[in-house]
Amino acid sequence: MSPTKNVEALLKMYEIYDRHRDSVLWFLEDLDAGSYEEYDQKYAGASSSRCHFTTVCGFFELSGVLVNSRLIDQKLYFDVFNPAPFWEKCRVIVEGMRNHRPHIYENFESLSSRRLEWQKKRKDKRGVAKT
């Protein structure tokens, strides 16, 4: 992909992320469930909390598809976004969801793993971890 197209795609992703900042903040600050069952009980139905959850997971799932397909440059993406803390916050919930939908948010999970590998390589090169 050309540098211009990469920048355009990254800016579009940032616009999406920024439009849902309330969901991002809810996810990081208020999401509190130690299992899928607890999540399903606390955030049942079409609650605003459940919408926040699916918005954030959906954003990172889409990001994973674009990065894994090389439609957005990984280095550019990871210089702006860090999916790892989001994945760690929802990992046990998603694992429970996979009992019924085995592939749900798999691109989100792989994106988080790739970000951690990318961060480690940066640390190895510079001697200091960058987040």
* First-last Cα distance: 25 Å
Q: Kindly name the structural category.
A: mainly alpha
Shape: globular
How many domain regions? 1
Question: What sequence of helices (H) and strands (E) makes up the elements?
Answer: HHHHHHH
Q: Helix amount, in percent? A: over 70%
Number of strands: 0
Radius of gyration: 15 Å
How much of the residues is beta strand, in percent? under 5%
Number of helices: 7
Low-confidence stretches: none
Average pLDDT, all residues: 93
Biggest sheet descriptor = none
Report what the structure shows.
With 131 residues, the chain is mainly α. It has one domain. It has helices spanning 3-19, 21-29, 36-42, 48-68, 74-80, 84-97, 106-126. The two termini are 25 Å apart.
Brief summary:
The chain has helices at residues 3-19, 21-29, 36-42, 48-68, 74-80, 84-97, 106-126. The chain has 131 residues and is an all-alpha fold. The protein has one domain (3-126).
How do the strands and helices of this protein lay out in sequence?
Layout: H1 3-19, H2 21-29, H3 36-42, H4 48-68, H5 74-80, H6 84-97, H7 106-126
Helix pairs in contact: 2-4, 3-6, 4-7, 6-7
